[in-house]
Amino acid sequence: MNNNEDDWEYSINLPHSPLAVGVVRGALRLMLRAHGLGELLVTAELLASELITNAHVHAPGPVLPACEALREMAATLGVGHQR
Fold this sequence. Notes:
With 83 residues, the protein is α+β, with helices and mostly antiparallel strands. The protein has helices spanning 20-34, 41-58, and strands at 9-11, 63-71, 74-81.
């Protein structure tokens, strides 16, 4: 396990529900602010909303978003689903 505070990753399991978009946006706000990346919020929330909405519309089941540190002032956001 890496204990470097600059290296982090979060993921949450979400039900196949339209409510998932709001949950992810709220969680993303907390994650980015906690790591001093508040300036990425507007763009990150827009991207997360699009990704989660598309996953809800096109994936057959629960959604698995993940956000992790990429490097200073950057983060990656990805979405998968359970089969």
